[in-house]
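DM from R.C. (forwarded with permission)

"hey, sorry to bug you on a friday — could you get me a structure for this? deadline for the figure draft is monday and I only need the backbone to look sensible"
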Amino acid sequence: MDHDVQALKESIDRLVEAGPLVPADTESIVALYRQFNRLEAVVTEATSSFDASGDWAPDGAATASAWLSVRCSIPIAHTRRFVRRSRQLCHLPAFARAWSNGEITSAHMDTVAGVRRDSTAELFRRDERFLCDQATTLPFKDFTRVVSYWDQHADPDGTEDKEMERQARRNVYLEESFDGLWLGKLTLDPIAGTIVAEELSRLEHELFEIDWAKAKEDLGQEPKISDLERTSGQRRCDALKEMATRSKTAPANGRRPAPLFSVLVDYPTLSGRVCELAQGTVLTPGALLPWLDEAIIERAVFGPKNRVEVGEKARMFTGATRRAIELRDRECTHPYCDRPASACQGDHIIPYVENGPTTQENGRILCGFHNRLRLPRPPPSAA
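My reply, with the result:
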């Protein structure tokens, strides 16, 4: 065993032996994850050298990934991913350095490797430093949006082809098992997935309210989640059944509802290209074409200071004002939350009780938990 690898093993041994006493404060946990990223980068670099060396061939393995799968007891899909990632390192020098420094993760590497291809290679070499800077400074979900838009600008035709391929991969598997249970799997394109997921979530929430009310009545007090008669998974299952039931009972000549998804599309001459679902998934313009006959177009102009003009002000965060801050924020604005705006509340930045105005500038989206968290707690009662 290499001396450096032995030293690493001994260091990890000391952490393992510490057991529950492994440092878990905020500073230490961030440092541990950073070192984890660095170690994964080193393993990937070593995998690249091992793959190129051919040392796996004398044992009869056809590929390095097959050898690693057997000798390291790792699923073959994982080792193939490692080898595939290792072969990209030479094309991603800035990202490889940032990964070795622990500044980014393997997920960042896979994201940029997915947009670097023959048609974008020259532009990628030009822009890699910029993209890497975005990776080290932005939250991961924002970084993926930057990369998606970069890809669209670098290869417009190629990204439309990729979108068609993505839609072609849609599939639903639902089969009855030997004991009568039904097993299934869904693969949906972004728009269809959003439509199904939002309706499923809406119905699941209806069932949750029913379960909560029943448990409260039975217990005579506010229940806990564990007191509800159905789990969240069971409610989703029942919600899916309810969707099928409502579909079956809908009149043949009934009015078809408008598409149940929101897409943000910019006005290019004002602010640059924006085309994404409300939750942030980037789409190509071509993905919207099949929906244009059914779509309801809502015009929202982002003006100075990010103000959104969609209608008259309302006293509370309802109507046009509520919609404006939903479009602007799109999710809970607390940095450690990603609840969608549709499941959140409108909150006054300057509290209403302190004469904070109910305006778009003074409004923001917060989920119920984080909205309650910012409220002052009453002092403990005297003993």
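R.C.: lifesaver. The longest helix spans residues 190-219.
me: no worries. The first strand starts at residue 171 and ends at 176.
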